[in-house]
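Q: Could you fold this chain for me?
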Amino acid sequence: MPISNTLTAIIPKILARGLLSLRERVLMTRLVNLDYSMDAKKKGSTIDVPVAASLTASDVTPAAYPATPGDLTIPTVQISLNNWKKASFGLSDNELGQIEAQADFIPLEMSAAFEALATAVNDSVFSEYVGVYGYTGTAGTAPFGSGVEVLSAINSRKILNKMKCPRDFRRGVLDYDAEASALALSQFSDAEKIGSGEVKISGEIGRKFGVDWNADDSVPVHTAGTAASATTDNAGYALGVKTITLASAGTGTILVGDIFTIAGDSQTYVVVTGNTDVSSGGTIVFEPGLKVPITTSATAITLKATHVCNLVFHRDAFALAMRAPDEALKKVFNPDNSYTMEDPVSGLVMRLEVIRMYKQTMWELDCLWGAKLIRPEFATRIAG
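A: Sure. Below is the predicted structure, expressed as structure tokens.
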């Protein structure tokens, strides 16, 4: 049945206030490469995100005419809109009146619905950490626990620099334990060392070592596999190889997202396809390709232990695509019961639909999005 003009007018107010209340709670959507649009899409649709092509310098040869430029194909990464989630709540007629009358009134159930969806989006971006192979810090020990631990920040910068990561738009996200340790460091907070007392006044680390530091309680923990005494076989592997065969040695598992090192090679690698029992041999697939060749002898593989995945990354390491859910049903039902809004600060795009019942109103929020790690070389973990 058609909803009243009163409800139609209040839908944008509810969306606007709800999105405004989430700006301080949702972090990752503000830190990554955000491609969102009001164009309606269906779950499973894909979005092409362009990635900078690799170019090389060449010699200039004077001639009567300029050389014909070579073809340039801009590579793209596809992001699947594979997340479509909703949250529902009910508002009484009394609460609706309060929303119209009070600019700051947000019912608890409405706030909880917005927060539930925002948390789902935030967590989906964090979950892409499994492809990050940069690694510094000590598993099981919160970084920045002492003056020496400021090296975690310096080493993360070194890792990104070596990977030719642009020096602007670098962001760091710590869990609250790591943030508390960092705030206690004189290198991060003492006015006589940083030229400002703002850190101790605001409680925010701010920009240090070329990174804008933030904190979030959704920083993921990676539970590592249990492999011990695992080795490669004796086939030997060349530079750039991304798949190796294991010898039937050692015990335990190697899981997707595990970080490992290979004897004689300082590079850290991340597992893309794991192995459920290293004692039976089998293969593992990993990124990046081998930086040091493996000789024709069994070579030890060592896993990093379970760790908190604090992250330092460039904005373009991760991409988030948000779209308005398909609104084809508007052709069948009353179009006034649905409204879509985008928030330019948090990047959230949400749709609110309304169902009027007896003396109360049911409201349902939904959003459609996809997240992907598109430049793993522009990110590193700081283990905690």
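A (continued): The chain has three domains: 5-49+78-127+320-370, 132-219+309-316, 224-305.
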